[in-house]
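Page 47, continued from p. 46.
Same chain as before, 421 aa.
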Amino acid sequence: MSEYKPRLIDSELKDDLEAFGAVLIVGPKWCGKTTTALQIAKSVLRMQDRDTRERNMALARLKPSELLKGDNPRLIDEWQMAPQLWDSVRLSVDLRNKPGLYILTGSTIVNKETIDHSRTGHIDKLKMGTMSLFESGDSVGSVSLRELFDGGIEVSGISNAELGDIAGLIIRGGWPQSVGKSEKIAQKLIKGYCESIIDTDVISIGERRRNPHKMRGVLRSLSRSTASPMSRKNIIRDISSKEDSGISENTLNDYLDALREIFVLEELPAWNPNLRSKTAIRTADTVHMCDPAVAAYFSGASKDGLMNDPNTFGLLFESLVIRDLRAYARNIGGDVFHYRDKSGLEADAVIRLHNGKWAAIEIKLGESWADESAYNLRKLKEKVNREEMGEPAFLAVITGSSCAYTRSDGVHIIPIACLRN
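Result:
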């Protein structure tokens, strides 16, 4: 067995198990949910185990409490295969009235209609993604997002990653199985994951049959729209130009929902702050996959190809940064958004902590865009009603360059391979 690489969620899981009777970990398939849970679980029930699946499913229908027997914390892996287990876990937590009883993992969002009770007060939820560059060991971690929010620091550091390395990290993705593997093996693993989305994962959601050719077309169109506002009209037009039968809006919505339910499509929502003026804010979500390697695969990108296609490279780099920012922000109690308004002013990422602190970030592959990006960030700062929203904790441009520093105007330049939580 390979050595376990620590994940940002480790400390959160430990804390949650001290506070709640059960913890639910959700996220895309293969991102490491089970491996992480096994580091602390004392017993395990694998619902997807073919050797015991029929017996376990029968017990889930007839006497689900039998499946909960075992040392605690007990891991129930892919619990959504038997939704009845949810209420059994909730009841067990109620009756035993103690923390740290169960860890549930799931790679699919469960229809709420199949669950009779909410999780409020009983089961906490943690979101997990593929590995950030700091988790995979590809970021030196010299710049801390937490410390940036604490304020008053000037950043410094040198990353070890050149642009060719960044392109390789995009293609490789952040799945634990692909980290540390050769480029050839990593590509095989990513292909297996991406093809399983079409061949098995979306088929298992609900009772509706989905056309694999159209699903591939949706994934290709989404991948080409990475880091851009979601446009259903463009996707329909894109698919109709390649499929004789095209795709209806209702069918497209179903396909998009299916991709969300397996945590493959994870759009970035818009930030809607109080502004000094009445400028209209664009509210469309920005398209992002759970990992930039998914978009790279379905758009046919390669490491060498990215080096010769700055536009695609820049969009996939933005998706890489958003993936990492989401992981780091979750770890320090925050969420990531984007900002665009009618005047054309934008920020690729806005992090808002649950305590109200916020920061605006531009994402540029090359440092040559730093002046323009810094200007836009300062302009956004002036536009925000800071009496209501507070001053930004920091403004930063995240790049694919090598040197971290703070400009004379206070805007930080941060290579993605220097950043950590």
